[in-house]
Amino acid sequence: MSMRTLPLVFINLGGEMLYILDQRLRAQNTADDNTQKVMNDIIATMFSKAFMEELLKPQDLYSNRALRTVLTRLAHASIMRLNPASMDRLYELMVMAFKYQLLLCPRPRDLLIISYNHIDTIREFVRDTPSVLNQVDETHRKIIEVYTPLSDGEFQLLRQTLLIFLQDMHVRVSLFLKDKVQNPNGRFALSTTGPVPHGTEVPGLIRMFSSNGKEWKRWEFPTGGSYTSSIRVGSFERFGDRVIRIGTNMYSVTQPEETHTSKNFSQKANSEPNPLAKEELNLLARLLGGMKVQNRNTETGFRVNLFATDQEEEEAGASGGNGDQSFQVINIQATQAVQVNTELARIAGEFTGEPEQTESPEGPSNKGEDLLAMMDELIEL
Amino acid sequence: MYHKEKSIQMKSSASALYNNLSVLRIAPRSLTYFTVVHANMVNMVSASWDGLNYSHRQLQSKEANVATSSSLIMQAAWCVLPSRDILVLTSQKGIQMYESDGSIMVYWHALDTPETQTAQAVFARGIAAVREKYICVGISSGSMLVFDVPIKGSNITLSEVLEEHKESITDLASECSGSQECIADMVSADDSGNLCVWKSGEDFQLLNKIPGFQMSCSSVKLWKGTVVAGYGTGQIRLYEAVTGIVHAEVNAHARWIYSLDIAPFSGLLLSAAEDSLVRVWHLTMTPETNSVEIVHMYNECVTDTQICGAKFCDGDGYAFAVTGYDLSEIIRYTQV
């Protein structure tokens, strides 16, 4: 179907991954320059010119397996080493967030606003690193250039393509369950109240016209919902008030109070992170604890421990079991990597600029192989 | 006005596609067939009227390759012709036609795909049976293919290619009142909301072009010379087909409309959208004043569901069926 899905898929899914990682690092009071290194590494890879150019070529959406493989490689551009089960769980979390954003998107064109919300936050992450910030800005410019001319029908086709891709995924996410945006059966709650999308009239009016075009009768009908007029349009430029809050960082603790439209995403404006999100992310952190960073220039690597103490890490590990069956929340198992997987180390080395021989990637379908090969040869800018 | 009946379970869920439900009523066998598209497959369920027997069949997109997503089906619909019913599947690769129970494929037409990948998606979408012998199918380029269908057998031929639309075809509809007096036989709709009104024949004749307002028309019907069009803005508009005069405008839904249907004997209209609502309306024609009135009759909210298909199960509108994105059931309603 749509040939233009990939750039938006990576910006949105990659963005969700960065939100999770950022929250985890901040919650642990990780040293600022360590946090920065991690975020820079992933963002620099994701927004590299070569990578984006490859994504922007008109092509079908990758298969689930190919997409997950590429996202795994992306994750490994930083210090993260995830075993396959854990990567699965991270992937599900990213994907369910994106599915929710797609479903709630007021107009298909607003998928761009959602993508720009992700880019805005990513830009904040790297605002002190001019070289990476530049890449993000360049990519944003390119996205605006490519997507602005598309019609509403083409955006709906794009959205439909993504919805088909995400069909039948009903993983329950505790943050969504708590906020009641997801039902216990895994399906998302769709509201029949609130403002209508821009360009849509509030339902309820029938108007009759005579053959000379004059309205001769109008009356109302009961709508079964409770809608209000649309709010103003958000900015589709590189900067500006996006208005729609879908796609902003729902793991952020400093999220300001939202408007009615996006109430579901609001975090309480207090200093306590959402406890369930924290639990979720602790599970993720278990596997990240103790990972070494691959540094170039033989700088001393730093250990990123995503817990305040080793004891907390152990406790989180203990509670990271199967948990409440009816919840089936994201369950991330971590294993301390005694030996760093040599191939992963080599790939990580490539991302930090050391030229290496490449092996052909195994597993993914044909689509995405070129991209993977290219990623293996990426030289960090 | 309606109450919910027992749903029909499907083998897989419905995809988010326009007009994603087709219903065929087979009175001599007391059966109703339903088809719903799921990615590169079509779910076909046959339900006996006594509610006791259900049988399932799944049809694959031709040249489907499990590893890739490049053979998605856009639409499946029955074409009712005087001598036979044909099930038509339109996909990214081409057009498949089956005998009505889906058992035998009688025709395959491959779409031209460009040598090098362009940004324009390639697919077929929009299906209508027109008069006694034609099946029309729309293409993403805006062209429409007219197939000539014999009384029986597989000697189906491409009779004509209509090039009028510049944007992707979204839906096609033929005059469904059964009246022979109507001048217009078919209406076609596209992604910019443009509507074309046609008269069928050896060469199809363009009778009228009704301009859109840059908003996709996702579903269209033609009844007693009136075009009923549903748009991405949630509006429904009624036009006189041959002249393009607007009879009525309804702010019907809060989100993109995905499906319209008309029960030709009673003039009931069904509309369904991403806003989770199905609405039933009544159309009355007043030939003396050349006006069409639309009156709202009933609402049904399918909670937490973006509806993608809604069709009446009979010509009077006594019952209707609904499908929604990610739902593996066909929900049914009958009049109380």
From TrEMBL, chain A:
GO terms for cellular component: cytoplasm; plasma membrane. Transmembrane segments: none annotated. It holds the Pfam family Oscp1. Coiled coil: none annotated. It comes from the Eukaryota. PANTHER family: OXIDORED-NITRO DOMAIN-CONTAINING PROTEIN, PROTEIN OSCP1. This is Organic solute carrier partner 1a. It comes from Hucho hucho (huchen).
Automatic annotation (TrEMBL), chain B:
WD repeats lie at residues 250-291. Coiled coil: none annotated. It comes from the Eukaryota. InterPro entries: WD40/YVTN_repeat-like_dom_sf, WD40_repeat_dom_sf, WD40_rpt, WDR54_beta_prop, WDR55/POC1. Residues 1-336 form the WD repeat-containing protein 54 beta-propeller domain. Keywords: Repeat, WD repeat. One of its GO terms (cellular component) is centriole. One of its GO terms (biological process) is cilium assembly. Gene3D superfamilies: YVTN repeat-like/Quinoprotein amine dehydrogenase. This is WD repeat domain 54. The lineage of its organism: Eukaryota, Metazoa, Chordata, Craniata, Vertebrata.
